[in-house]
Design goal:
The complex is a heterodimer of chains A (259) and B (279).
Chain A (H helix, E strand, L loop, with lengths): L5 H6 L5 E10 L6 E11 L4 E6 L5 H8 L7 E6 L4 E4 L11 H11 L4 H14 L15 H14 L4 E5 L7 H18 L2 E5 L3 H7 L2 E6 L4 E7 L11 H21 L1
Helix pairs in contact in A: 3-4, 3-5, 4-5, 7-8
Chain B lengths: L4 H12 L7 H23 L11 H10 L1 H35 L1 H16 L6 H8 L3 H25 L3 H9 L4 H38 L8 H10 L3 H33 L9
Helix pairs in contact in B: 3-11, 4-5, 4-7, 4-9, 4-10, 5-7, 6-7, 7-9, 8-9, 9-10, 9-11, 10-11
Classes of the chains: A alpha/beta (259), B mainly alpha (279).
Bound molecules: adenosine-5'-triphosphate (ATP) and magnesium ion (MG).
Magnesium ion binds next to helix 2 of chain A.
């Protein structure tokens, strides 16, 4: 491969999300916690990036900053999108609305008309296999079902950039595999940019174009692994397992360093 | 496969729960309590603790009550009109103050704690001032009722707005709810249980204030139920005193427990604020 010409460099699309030297400190004085330490990362449009890292290393903090819900202590985040969707680590559904109501509200706030809204809501609930539970309220759903409603709601937003914080943590392996396929299809068809946080290394390799490993205390980018396994991938394939094993080794080293 | 195992388990659970609430299990303990109360009352009468014209038999009172239903309905009508007007005005004023205090930090710092203070003020204490300001009139009663009820209503709103879970505000923001739409789609529904419980408490205060107001301000013209109570007392018609007290009690319970209680329970259930196992 030859080096790109100057023209090629210039017409390269700008990053959908660019994180430049971002640090975040919570509190001040002795009790302060440095959650993120000079993190830099560019995510290309339509790229699927997975974030891995030990618990407490600042993944949720980073997503909140990208979504504009939190301000970095220093550094800059640039998101080139009209809308940024965020699926919270907790389902964060509105308890007064049914599963259908939660999904529909996202469409309503996105300016989708009434008839279209009904149709899309049905499709989305069907996609997360909750067609039969449309009329249930969050407290009548299981933890995994709530996560799936939250997924449907996040997809309803039709955001160019979709941030997902451990979206499939509470699901059984079968359901999760199915949702991986669904999510991959949606991502491929709609060319969204996805930043996906997970603790499951295989899941990261199954889904990501790149896997970004964060080191803890304070959070830094430890290493970036490009995933060059052709899609469609299977979570139990040998290639996925091999790369996941390598990343796990590296992750293990990071976790013990952080102690 | 549209339904997985977890879903199937939940379906069975939901089907096992009868959807409609049975009335009888809720009603019979109350009927029993009333029966025991009437029995105890009758025992006191039999013991001749007080002369019979002071503590008459419950059956004498109930009989008389049935007989006087016509006149009592008239005074209940007057009282309920006053209650409606006073409570309605209290809602308007309480809501305005509640929203203002919840949104403006300066107001909160200034009068936030005083609203709670007002709530602890016994409503009878307002009556002399009300009479000075409005003489013996409908407006004096209205004044007492509004001052009794508005603080609770305002507090319910402040409480509701203050306790909107931050995570839900963030979820709303991510979905594009800002400013008015955040208020409409997140703050108002999230605050609803607290607001309704403020209304319920406001009603209880309104009712007490109204009774205090009517008892003290007797004036010609419309006679409310507590004014009937006062008149009976003045005429040493003690059966009439009991009658009026029963009516006051029953209206208070019906509106507070049956009306507001049912609404509040329905909201809490819908929001998942009641332990499912307790249902
Ligand atoms: N609002 C906050 N106030 C103070 N400290 C915070 C706050 N939010 C996060 N932190 C701290 O920042 C650090 C990173 O938290 P964060 O939630 O980003 O971790 P995480 O990587 O998402 O962890 P997990 O995988 O367990 O979800 C933690 O040490 C946490 O205590
Ligand atoms: Mg987290």
């Amino acid at each position: 491969m030859t080096a790109p010409t100057e023209l090629e460099v210039r017409i390269q699309p700008a990053a959908a999300v660019s994180i430049a030297d971002v640090s975040k400190v919570f509190g001040n004085g002795r009790g302060s916690v440095a959650a993120l330490d000079h993190i830099s990362l560019d995510v290309a449009p339509a790229e699927f990036v997975c974030l891995l890292g030990a618990s407490g290393c600042g993944k949720s903090t980073l997503l909140n900053i990208i979504a504009g819900l939190d301000q970095p202590t220093s550094g800059q985040v640039n998101v080139r999108a009209n809308r940024t969707g965020l699926m919270f680590q907790e389902a964060a559904l509105f308890p007064w609305l049914t599963a259908r109501g939660n999904v529909e509200l996202a469409l309503k706030l996105g300016g989708v008309g009434r008839d279209e809204r009904r149709k899309r809501t049905d499709q989305l609930l069907e996609m997360v296999h909750l067609g039969d539970f449309a009329k249930k309220r969050p407290h009548e759903l299981s933890g995994g079902m709530r996560q799936r409603v939250a997924l449907a709601r996040a997809l309803a937003q039709d955001a160019e950039v979709l941030l997902m914080d451990e979206p499939f943590g509470a699901l059984d392996a079968m359901t999760r595999d199915r949702l991986h396929d669904e999510l991959e299809t949606v991502w491929r068809d709609t060319r969204r940019t996805v930043i996906f946080v997970t603790h499951n290394v295989r899941e990261a390799v199954r889904l990501g174009d790149r896997v970004v490993l964060l080191a803890s205390r304070p959070g830094r980018v430890a290493e970036i692994f490009p995933v060059e396994i052709p899609r469609p991938r299977r979570i139990d394939s040998a290639e996925v397992a091999t790369l996941a094993a390598a990343i796990t080794d590296r992750l293990r080293a990071e976790v013990s360093n952080g102690r | 496969m549209a339904v997985d195992t977890a879903d199937a388990v939940l379906i069975t659970e939901l089907m096992a729960k009868p959807a409609r609430r049975k009335l009888w299990p809720a009603v019979w303990p109350k009927l029993l309590a009333v029966a025991i109360f009437i029995g105890a009352w009758q025992v006191v009468v039999w013991l001749h603790w007080k002369p019979e014209y002071v503590v008459p038999s419950p059956f004498t009172v109930l009989d008389q009550l049935r007989h006087d239903l016509g006149t009592l309905t008239g005074s209940v009508g007057v009282t309920m009109r006053r209650a409606g007007e006073g409570f309605g005005l209290a809602i308007l004023i309480g809501a305005a103050i509640g929203l203002a205090v919840a949104r403006l930090p300066i107001l909160r710092a200034g009068i936030g704690s005083m609203i709670t203070g007002l709530q602890t003020m016994p409503s009878v204490a307002w009556v002399p001032l009300a009479i000075v300001l409005f003489q013996l009139s409908e407006r004096a009663i209205l004044f007492v009722v509004v001052l009794g009820a508005a603080p609770s209503i305002a507090n319910g709103i402040i409480d509701g707005v203050d306790n909107v879970p931050p995570l839900l505000m963030r979820a709303g923001r991510v979905l594009g709810a800002r400013g008015f739409s955040a208020l409409r789609y997140v703050v108002v529904p999230a605050a609803l249980p607290a607001v309704v419980s403020g209304l319920k408490q406001g009603w209880a205060f309104a009712w007490r204030s109204l009774m205090a107001g009517e008892l003290i301000t007797v004036f010609p013209g419309s006679i409310g139920i507590a004014q009937t109570l006062n008149v009976s007392y003045q005429n040493s018609d003690f059966v009439g005193v009991y009658e009026a007290m029963i009516v006051i009690f029953v209206i208070g319970v019906v509106v507070d427990a049956v009306f507001f209680g049912t609404i509040l329970r329905a909201i809490r259930k819908r929001y998942g604020l009641i332990d499912a196992a307790a249902l």
